[in-house]
Amino acid sequence: MIGKIYGTGIYAPSNIMDNHTLAQKVDTNDTWIRERTGIVRRHIIEDDTTVSMASKAAKEALETSQVRAEEVDFTLVSTISSNIILPCVACEVQKEIGAVNATCFDLNAACTGFLFAYNTAQAYIASKIFQTVLIIGAETLSGMVDWTDRNTCILFGDGAGAVVLKGEEGGLFSTVTHSSGKQGAALTCVPGGYIKMDGHAVFRFAVKEVSQCIQELLEKENLSSEDIDYFVLHQANRRIVESVAKRLETDLEKFPMNLQEYGNTSSASIPLLLNQMNRSGLLKKGNKIVMAGFGAGLSWGASLLEW
Ligand code: UT7
Fold it and tell me: Residue 170 has what pLDDT?
């Protein structure tokens, strides 16, 4: 059995902070941010929380999947920015949406979180423990950045994305994942503190390891990048996506992006992008997609799926 994506949903706060507004808070400017990152604006919570955004994205994903909340037997939330420690976000979402039959827990793998959550769901589905799975990436990074640190605050945004997976015979799933704790100092945050990042180190790591990891995955499956319709990368920096496309000698058109709209939303970035591709009609049945995540840990990975 392989989990097939039945539907997607998102929630992004309506409050938008563009680069010009941000430049009034910290010493930066729109041109620099656009040229160095591709980001134009980000959505920032006002009244929402990680839990409320996760719940709204989950409701939309269930609706578009035509799956009732009671049918969900596993809810997995990827987040590093919960507004509560206990209970976990997944249990709060369960309460909110009425997924009374679901087993619920959270996963913390930063910007690789959605990818690891997807793989976890696939493992449970393959072993026939769960069959209908709701996975959510939800982040309020606006509360974790130092708004005086232009090295980090220009990058991040808030949002949530969800997908519903149901077990089916056939389909495609394969993955290659890695972690390297010894490089962890490049991207850290202590309780109550702010995200601290060695931007150059993370940039170099992302370009090198993500390209290699995707290549590893393609070789494992005896595929070439020409066989892949879309590469859905974690949305951290336009230049990272461009560099990975170049290393894979693949047309940038196969690398959709929405970081211009949301900034880096950590584990929400891949489901936000998948939803956009899905709703815009870009995705066709049978499309082969490689999703790739990378970030704090350091951790990274790539997974192959068929739409
Ligand atoms: O989710 C995964 C986590 N994070 C990432 O993937 C981020 C990876 N890293 C990056 O995206 C980039 O390293 C950054 C966007 C963080 C920084 O971009 P950069 O091209 O590496 O810039 P830089 O740090 O090399 O700085 C270049 C110049 C410097 O000025 P001088 O020394 O050349 O005069 C900086 O002081 O740009 C200056 N600068 C800025 N200027 C305006 C740095 N940040 C800013 C800023 N606004 N926000």
Answer: 86
